Amino acid sequence: MSPSTRTLVVVRHAKAGHEPGLSDPERPLTGRGERDAREAGEHIRPLRPALVIASPSVRTRRTAELLGLDAPVEIERDIYEAFPDDLLDLLRRTDPGVGSLVLVGHNPGVHELVASLTGERVDGFPPGAFAVIELAGPWEEAGAGSGRLVRTYHP
């Protein structure tokens, strides 16, 4: 990987429950979701991400926490219910010094972001899934077809 290459890990939050009386943003992870998030973290940790950005929902914040990464976690409200273009705009604003970034969000936005960046069809992106994408240039140049899909993971 050259110094100008960026690594993006796009994570869909782990499995969440549906509890009566809770709004969608308040939905917690299930026991399985907690286990899946920890396991995903084992696969992501070797990439040594410098930053994690997550939606403000309970399930995405908890997923980010359970990944157990040695990186600051920033909560970004624009990730919740974001379209792929919104997520691309967010990526383009990433500090140029960040070489590896984890984005924890929601479907369909994260699934569509992976497809847009890589130009590849990714069959399914269930809760707890992630994709590792290499971008050849700076974050500000991230766009459709600018990435290479390195790996996908499904719990």
TrEMBL record:
Basic and acidic residues biased stretches: 24-41
Annotated region (Disordered), positions in chain: 15-41
Gene3D superfamilies, sorted: Phosphoglycerate mutase-like
Membrane spanning residue stretches: none
Domain of life: Bacteria
Name the UniProt record assigns to this protein: Phosphoglycerate mutase
Native source organism of the sequence: Microbispora corallina
